[in-house]
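Whiteboard transcription, Tuesday session. T.W. wrote the structure tokens on the left side:
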């Protein structure tokens, strides 16, 4: 969740007429009334995919190869569960936690979820999730739940995780429960790409029995905003880029360029491997910061989730358009990306989605296998993390929605996860382990 500090927020208050009050003064609406308050361009319509009580507070979403939507859902936020509630020293389960990774299915094809399964329950503010499993398992995912990046797997076909294995951890979460690992994306190079959020420090260590090409363990330390990648089996981890403040959301274009959303700096970055990006108090590598493709701020520092429309899925007129969620102004912002040579520029466009309901909080975006834009709505009276006390009684703990924005003449794609990724990635990014050559990784 891309939240924001008070100084930057106060600046946005003066620049935009949208309702950016720290605590919304309206009352919660039903899903039906909220849907009527959401506005999209002509030729599109908004439909409800899921809502409470099927889900509560969604954060990250991802589709599997069967077209099912996996969602991390939390009630514990913004407080992490105390260690006294942990089932063991690893935090495998949390007593009485309602946080879970849920699988949502539309079994009758009407465009609305009618089946929900808690794949992994008893979690602790889960964020990033990636459906993936080893060949010997029936289903599984890689996910973040305090304090680890986990591999959850189903061994008997009931869509319930009976394997809970730590891939990396414990990692940092103590300073900021929303600035953690998220936005897990599988590249066609076989690596999992992920964001590391604001203010926490995470120390990755790989056991020698997992290390690729080495009989020694490996360590990596990340502080605050970074983008990194790792192998799904936990055998290797490395930085992809350095800096940003609080990245949340990753996507590729047809050329294999990787983009992220970020708060507190620039809403959209093209992530050049090994490059440094502006952050709080961080320096570059002596070569300077990488180029900034987005010169505007979309009116807030609460930017999260990013989708790149490409490949003609909405027609050629929509290719090279990006959407980002804006939880401060309750909008989905819109940019048209143009290129000078290989250098992209984000050109601000009219907002793609606006809301008359200021509780609308678009925290994550995904393009589904049906070509619909899925929006995780953290529906809440309060979205600020620093400006309002964490124990403020106005924080909603029950409501959450997922919306589908449908282009009326769009044709569905096959329900194949790999078809949703650009084919160019596999040839652009090497697949071999390169950890040993990175200055940030030491052998001990």
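and on the right, the sequence the group agreed on:
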């Amino acid at each position: 969740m891309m939240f924001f500090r008070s100084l930057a927020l106060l600046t946005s208050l003066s620049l935009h007429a949208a309702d950016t009050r720290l605590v919304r003064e309206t009352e919660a609406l039903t899903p039906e009334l909220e849907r009527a308050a959401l506005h999209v361009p002509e030729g599109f319509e908004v439909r409800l995919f899921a809502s409470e009580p099927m889900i509560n507070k969604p954060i990250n979403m991802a589709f599997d190869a069967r077209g099912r939507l996996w969602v991390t859902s939390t009630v514990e936020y913004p407080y992490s569960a105390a260690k006294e509630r942990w089932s063991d020293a690893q935090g495998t389960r949390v007593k009485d936690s309602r946080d879970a990774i849920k699988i949502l299915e539309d079994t009758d094809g009407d465009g609305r979820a009618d089946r929900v399964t808690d794949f992994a329950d008893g979690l602790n503010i889960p964020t990033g999730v990636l459906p993936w499993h080893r060949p010997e398992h029936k289903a599984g995912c890689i996910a973040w739940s305090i304090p680890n990046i986990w591999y959850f797997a189903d061994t008997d076909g009931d869509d319930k995780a009976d394997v809970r294995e730590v891939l990396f951890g414990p990692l940092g979460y103590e300073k900021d429960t929303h600035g953690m690992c998220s936005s897990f994306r599988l590249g066609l190079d076989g690596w999992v790409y992920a964001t590391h959020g604001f203010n926490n420090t995470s120390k990755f260590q790989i056991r020698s029995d997992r290390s690729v090409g080495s009989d020694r363990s490996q360590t990596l330390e990340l502080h605050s905003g970074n983008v990194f990648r790792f192998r799904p089996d936990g055998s290797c981890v490395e930085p992809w880029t350095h800096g940003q403040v609080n990245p949340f959301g990753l996507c590729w274009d047809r050329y294999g360029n990787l983009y992220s959303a970020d708060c507190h700096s620039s809403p959209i970055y093209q992530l050049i491997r090994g490059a440094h990006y502006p952050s709080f108090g961080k320096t570059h590598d002596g070569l300077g910061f990488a180029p900034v493709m987005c010169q505007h701020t979309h009116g807030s520092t609460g930017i999260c989730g990013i989708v790149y429309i490409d490949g003609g899925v909405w027609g050629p007129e929509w290719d090279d358009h990006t959407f980002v969620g804006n939880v401060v102004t309750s909008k989905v912002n819109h940019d048209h990306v143009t290129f000078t040579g290989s250098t992209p520029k984000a050109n601000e466009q009219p907002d793609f989605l606006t809301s008359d309901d200021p509780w609308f909080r678009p925290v994550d975006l995904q393009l589904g296998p049906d070509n619909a834009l899925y929006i995780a709505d953290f529906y809440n009276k309060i979205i600020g993390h620093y400006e309002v006390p964490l124990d403020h009684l106005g924080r909603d703990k029950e409501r959450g929605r997922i919306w589908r924005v449908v282009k009326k003449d769009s044709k569905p794609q096959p329900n194949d996860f790999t078809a949703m990724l650009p084919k160019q990635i596999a040839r652009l990014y090497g697949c071999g382990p390169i950890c040993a050559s990175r200055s940030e990784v030491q052998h001990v």
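Someone added at the bottom: Residues 6-443 form a domain with the Neuraminidase fold (CATH 2.120.10.30).
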